[in-house]
Design brief:
Bound molecules: adenosine-5'-triphosphate, magnesium ion
Order of helices and strands: HEHEHEHHEHHEHE
Number of strands: 6
Strand order of the largest sheet: 3-2-4-5-1-6
CATH class: Alpha Beta
Helix content: 40-55%
CATH superfamily: P-loop containing nucleotide triphosphate hydrolases
CATH topology: Rossmann fold
Shape: globular
CATH architecture: 3-Layer(aba) Sandwich
Number of domains: 1
Number of helices: 8
Largest sheet: 6 strands, parallel
């Protein structure tokens, strides 16, 4: 009986705290979300959030800064969606192409498109998948990207993925999730599974 009461009291207190937090968060605007870390779940989280936006009738675009497999499950699923534009840039993984000049050209082309989308308020969600690698390998200068992000339409959400994020990008982000690798099936000898890895 007493235990039940304390539980009830604790839950009531918790609800008060949560309600107060909800009441104090009133701003409506686009957010910049960074998904980083060496665990699995960055790109899939960004694309899952984009699916949420599509569910609400919001228009989105994805730019894949690194081209992996050609026909991933997400690409096959989303490519014909009327509210989603899918752009694959680049020629392959950097460590596979081993052609720096070609990689830089691809990065610049991807950025030219990204910059255009960051001025287009019809897009309510932009996913820049693996963009963080462009800064790590110095394929793109960071300052113009920061400036374009800061000047984007007020209603526009942006999600950027990549294992390591530059500090200055983190400084302007609203939400940062660091996905930690605790275990991955690959290390137990399981090869990349269709529908899980791609
Ligand atoms: P996902 O697309 O599944 O959300 P991710 O975007 O977090 O993964 P990336 O760093 O982009 O991960 O790596 C892409 C691929 O590598 C995916 O197929 C993913 O399953 C796999 N992967 C991610 N993290 C690990 C890890 N720690 N060990 C082995 N493979 C991994
Ligand atoms: Mg990824």
């Amino acid at each position: 009986m007493t235990e039940k009461k304390t539980h009830q009291q604790r839950m009531a207190r918790k609800k008060e705290v949560i309600d107060a937090r909800i009441a104090s968060a009133k701003e409506e605007r686009g957010v910049l979300i960074l998904l980083k870390g060496n665990g699995k779940g960055k790109s899939s989280s960004a694309l899952g959030t984009m699916a949420r936006c599509a569910g609400h009738g919001k228009k989105s675009a994805v730019i894949q800064f690194i081209k992996g497999r050609r026909e991933t499950g997400e690409y096959l699923f989303f490519r014909d969606h009327p509210l989603i534009d899918w752009h694959v840039m680049g020629h392959g993984f950097t460590w596979e192409t081993q052609d720096k000049t070609q990689d830089i050209t691809a990065a610049q082309q991807a950025w030219a498109l990204a910059e255009k989308l960051l001025q287009d308020d019809r897009y309510e969600m932009l996913v820049f998948d693996e963009m963080a690698y462009m800064f790590k390998y110095k394929y793109l200068p960071l300052e113009p990207v920061i400036e374009a992000l800061q000047n984007r339409p007020r209603n526009q959400h942006v999600m950027i993925t990549g294992r390591v994020m530059p500090e200055r990008l983190e400084a302007i982000a609203d939400t940062i999730s660091n996905i930690k690798d605790e275990r991955h099936a690959f290390r137990q000898g399981v090869t990349a599974q269709a529908g899980i890895e791609f």
